[in-house]
Design a protein that fits this description.
single chain, about 400 residues, alpha/beta, Rossmann fold, Hypothetical protein af1432, 2 domains, six-stranded parallel sheet, 6 strands, binds adenosine-5'-diphosphate
């Protein structure tokens, strides 16, 4: 049996990926080809990196026409770093008698000898390469010649399908047509789930105008002004840090939507939400509104974007590995225009110069004020503090 292995971020899967897969199946006579999306790092925002389950689902949709293509969640479910050699070893165990083929695009062949334990990979597989760019074949043949001394390399002569996931995401971000690069069901899936901050035909996915009316009618003047300021601050931070500004505006606007609800109503929403809530959050009534707010906008306004929901859910307590949008709402809430606590100017400056340092400072500030009041620290807050402490230490190395 001839088994192919094809890994990538598939963020999202596009026609170039499927072209490579189908070319390899046909040209190299594969019986099965496994497509394996790699794990999302917790620090990447979902505007730039779709969640693991969504990338898996898009791959299933895009490969459904070809019965030789299979989608594997092996790398996503594994608790180890996704090194290709581990995946190859896994397939070797699964199919001890099969001949294994590892598929890569041209860019990957050219950097292949920098991969972790690449020689061992070549002992176990035949490396199959398909061109990505017009005119890259001579370079590929040369590299294949060099690596051919260690292992077996096959280079397809098929013309490339020139497209990259980065280009697709850029088109989506600029609200330009991206549908020609993807399977039609993948396009539909992206729209349905609001992935990569996709918008409707020239429309904002989440329109803030009717939400402003709602907030004005339901919040005190002071809270409404704060919400508007946080929204504006989040938009600015998003522009600075490459997040979708309108999405950040929307999340910032709604972060305190439940803050002025009576305690019993907030608590009822928290209990109904199904979110995992720690004991410390349950014990502290000022922490209920974030959880209640996320659930409320999902239930009442149909907001499905998990990143928006999480940025509201965690805007007071924070957590480890926050997405960029979560960080923006967390910090935006602390440095909005009307804030006037002692070190606010220092915090504002930090927010726009070093987001990780601002996050650490904010966690420390929040924990100190809880301790001063004799409160308890939610576990996710302590984890958040530790996370940014380690992140900054590692950055300095
Ligand atoms: N248009 C394409 N044609 C051929 N191979 C491709 C193409 N796009 C990506 N690949 C290959 O697919 C694998 C996974 O790439 P991935 O990182 O998911 O995509 P992208 O480079 O588009 O972001 C890599 O080996 C890459 O070289």
């Amino acid at each position: 049996m001839r088994i192919g292995i094809y890994g990538g971020s598939f963020n999202p899967v596009h026609n170039g990926h499927i072209h490579l897969a189908e070319t390899a199946v046909a040209e190299f006579g594969l019986d099965r080809l496994y497509l394996l999306p790699s794990k999302k790092s917790p620090h990447r925002s979902s505007a730039e990196y779709a969640p693991d389950e969504d990338r898996l689902e898009m791959l299933r949709l895009a490969s459904r026409h070809n019965e030789k293509l299979f989608v594997s969640d092996y790398e996503i479910k594994s608790d180890r770093v996704s090194y290709t050699i581990y995946t190859v070893e896994h397939f070797r165990r699964e199919f001890p008698d099969a001949e294994l083929f590892l598929l890569v695009g041209s860019d990957m062949l050219l950097s292949f000898d920098t991969w972790y334990r690449y020689e061992q990979i070549l002992e176990n597989v035949t490396l199959c390469v398909v061109s990505r760019e017009k005119g890259d074949l001579p370079e590929l043949r040369k590299k294949a010649g060099e690596l051919g001394k260690i292992g077996k390399i096959l280079v397809s002569e098929t013309a490339p399908t020139v497209v990259s996931s980065t280009e697709v995401r850029k088109k989506i971000a600029k609200n330009k047509d991206f549908t020609c690069y993807l399977d039609e069901n993948v396009v539909q899936y992206i729209r349905l789930k609001g992935l990569y901050s996709v918008r409707g035909e020239g429309e904002l996915l989440y329109n803030p105008d009717d939400k402003k009316k709602y907030l004005k009618a339901h919040l005190s003047a002071k809270r409404f002004a704060h919400s508007m300021n946080v929204a504006a601050e989040c938009r600015k931070l998003a522009e600075k840090y490459g997040e979708d500004p309108e999405k950040a505006y929307f999340a910032g606007l709604l972060h305190d939507i439940c803050k002025e609800l009576p305690d019993d109503e907030q608590k009822a929403l928290v209990l109904e939400s199904g979110y995992t809530v720690c004991r410390e959050e349950m014990e502290t009534r000022s922490l209920w509104h974030g959880i209640a707010g996320a659930y409320y906008i999902k239930k009442e306004f149909g907001v499905e974007d998990i990143d928006i929901l999480n940025s509201i859910r965690f805007h007071t307590v924070g957590r480890a590995g926050m997405s960029r949008l979560e960080e923006i709402v967390y910090i935006g809430d602390l440095v909005s225009a009307e804030r006037d606590y002692k070190d606010v100017d220092k915090m504002r400056k930090l927010a726009y110069t070093d987001l990780n340092a601002a996050m650490l400072e904010a966690f420390a500030f929040s924990m100190k004020s809880v301790i001063k009041k004799g409160g308890v620290i939610p576990i996710c807050t302590a984890e958040g503090y530790n996370f940014y402490t380690r992140l900054i230490k590692e950055d300095k190395k």
